[in-house]
Specification:
The complex is a heterodimer of chains A (about 230) and B (about 300). Chain A has helices at about 5-20, 30-55, 55-80, 85-110, 115-135, 140-165, 170-195; one strand spanning about 230. By secondary structure, chain A is mainly α. Chain A is globular, with a radius of gyration of 24 Å. The relative contact order of chain A is 0.10. Chain B has about 300 residues and is an alpha/beta fold. Chain B folds into 2 domains: about 1-155, Rossmann fold; about 160-290, Hypothetical Protein Tm841, Chain: A,domain 3, CATH 3.30.1180. Chain B has 12 helices and 13 strands. Chain B has a 6-stranded mixed β-sheet, with helices on both faces. Chain B has a 4-stranded parallel β-sheet with strand order 2-1-6-7, sandwiched between helices. A 3-stranded antiparallel β-sheet of chain B has the order 4-3-5, with helices on one face. In chain B, β11 (about 230-240), α10 and β12 (about 265) form a beta-alpha-beta unit. The radius of gyration of chain B is 19 Å and the shape is globular. Classes of the chains: A mainly alpha (about 230), B alpha/beta (about 300). The interface between A and B is large, with 42 and 69 residues. β1 (about 230) of chain A pairs antiparallel with β7 (about 115-120) of chain B.
Chain lengths: ~230, ~300
């Protein structure tokens, strides 16, 4: 067993930890940050696997993981900044990513043997729905679409492996997808037991810092803190 | 005794304001950038929104009142020996606060015995109106201008204002959201929830569907207010969706087991230009009496009235 292979497993385990953790997070910027870190190690895993088994077999996965990392980082900043400008940039970036994925996906589908086209098409649709789900407001869309995506990846791994007989079968890759599904299950188990919370947090009026207003004689003409007096 | 002045960002009609002893200095509205109409005087809100709905291509603009507009309102009150408290729409969204200040500066030397306090509400619409309503109560109880302005500043700090819109089109026209965001948001049926943060309008969240956004407003605000509902005043404003606004207010009152003083307020043109028909606004604050009691430890003597 080569050192590269062992390192790939190590990166895989770190990826699993971040993937699992990210679906326990309700806050969108923190979710994307966890996803971004996780997918960075995901790149490392595919790269090390490539070094162990031949880089050409893993190159498409390295590219896919890099695409995922960049997307997560851009979305992290989009939601963290939460300005009209960042939102506009984020939505344009999302559309660009969808176009790229569609072009690359459709090209791949047309290039593969006819009997496995539906598998690739299914993967493409699942991946696109997940990317859109990530951007959608609320906590549910991303979790529903990631389960569909993870299932699509797991279910298509075995048939593709059997058909192609190459190194597509990656136990750690499958475990990462299982981690996503189980994290979503744990999320709903955890929050399903809690009393329902409002989906949006509104500010309590008493949470505001009250001005420390010094008592002044009624005749004084000095400005109070805040109000302009003349 | 002091007199209260505001701008039409508080969404009160001239008649309504007069009845409460408040002078409202109107914003200017223009459809063609040549004719400038005084909000609520030259054009009613009903006519304004009818025109907005008739012609979807029209995008009216608003401009702040001039210092002279404020001077015309201040002068008779100063002549009558009254101090003045002015509450303006957030200085981050309009130059009205500057106009009101400039006018006060210009008159300061002519009336050395009188005081004008200008308060930047850091909000608008029903949020601004809440602060004015608290000032009216203080004025009627006989508070002096200085003390009332101090308390109004504290009320302002507790005032939270939220809006939801029925469409992103007006935000896009005003440059507050980008074209792609508006297009995709429209396709997905996203309704933004906006709030005032340090005087600026920011987006809190986008929610799919009108029913869902109303439910979120209702549940979220109830949760925020339930621990101190007895100390809170709340107001709901709307643009051409009075039934929803009334239902929302009734639901708040039922859930929190309190009755709020404020009527449902039709939001005026100055705010409506940027939000469009279908907008709902909710604002809440802590009543000045409750704040006065809480602030006694902050150096403000806890007396109920100062003459």
């Amino acid at each position: 067993m080569s050192n590269w292979f062992i390192l790939a497993q190590f990166f895989g385990v770190i990826t699993i930890v971040f993937e699992f953790a990210s679906y326990q997070i309700k806050d969108k910027p923190k979710y994307f940050l966890a996803q971004g870190i996780g997918s960075f190690f995901w790149i490392g895993m595919f790269f090390c696997m490539g070094m162990a088994t031949g880089l050409s077999t893993q190159m498409s996965l390295v590219i896919a993981a890099t695409y995922s990392t960049v997307r997560n980082i851009v979305f992290w900043q989009t939601f963290k900044r939460n300005t009209a400008k960042s939102k506009e940039f984020g939505i344009n970036f999302l559309l660009l990513m969808i176009v790229f994925a569609l072009v690359a996906g459709v090209y791949t589908v047309t290039q593969v043997p006819e009997q496995v086209r539906w598998i690739h098409a299914l993967g493409l649709v699942a991946a696109l729905s997940f990317v859109i789900g990530q951007y959608m407001p609320g906590v549910h869309a991303v979790r529903i679409t990631v389960v569909i995506y993870a299932l699509a990846v797991i279910l298509t791994q075995s048939p593709l492996n059997i058909l192609y007989g190459d190194f597509r079968w990656n136990v750690m890759g499958v475990l990462i997808e299982v981690a996503k599904i189980s994290s979503v299950a744990v999320f709903y188990w955890r929050f399903g037991k809690q009393p329902p919370e409002p989906a949006l947090a509104f500010a309590k009026p008493s949470a505001s810092k009250l001005p420390a207003v010094p008592a002044m004689p009624v005749a004084a003409k000095a400005a109070t803190e805040g109000a302009q007096a003349y | 005794m002091f007199h209260i002045v505001s701008d039409s960002g508080c969404d009160w009609s001239q008649d309504q304001a007069k009845a409460l002893g408040v002078d409202v200095v109107p914003f200017y509205l223009t459809f063609d950038e040549q004719t400038f109409l005084k909000e609520g005087i030259c054009i009613s809100n009903a006519d304004y929104f009818a025109r907005l709905q008739e012609d979807k291509t029209v995008f009216p603009k608003t401009s702040q009142p001039s210092p002279q507009d404020f001077i015309e309102v201040y002068q008779p009150q100063l002549e009558a020996g009254k101090d003045i408290i002015v509450v303006t729409i957030s200085s981050k969204t309009s130059g009205t606060f500057n106009s009101a200040n400039l006018a006060a500066e210009m008159l300061a030397s002519d009336y050395p015995e009188r005081s004008i306090f200008v308060i930047d509400s850091m909000t608008g619409s029903v949020g601004e109106a809440l602060i004015i309503k608290e000032l009216i109560k203080m004025r009627d109880k006989g508070y002096d201008a200085q003390r009332a302005s101090q308390l109004a500043e504290a009320v302002k700090e507790t005032t939270k204002t939220y809006f939801t819109l029925d469409t992103l089109d007006y935000l896009k026209r005003g440059g507050r959201v980008g074209s792609t965001t508006a297009l995709v948001g429209g396709v997905l049926g996203l309704r933004p929830v906006l709030h005032m943060v340090d005087g600026s309008i920011e987006q809190l969240e986008s929610v799919r569907g009108r029913k869902k956004v109303l439910k979120m407003l209702e549940e979220g605000i109830e949760a925020a207010l339930k621990e101190e509902a007895q100390d809170v005043e709340l107001s709901v404003g709307h643009i051409l969706c009075a039934e929803e606004a009334a239902q929302l207010k009734a639901n708040f009152e039922k859930a929190l087991a309190v009755e709020f003083d404020h009527d449902i307020t039709p939001v005026g043109a100055a705010i409506g230009t940027h939000t469009g028909p279908g907008a709902l606004a909710v604002a809440y604050c802590i009543r000045h009496e409750a704040l006065e009691a809480r602030m006694s430890g902050n150096g403000l003597p806890a007396v109920s009235a100062a003459a």
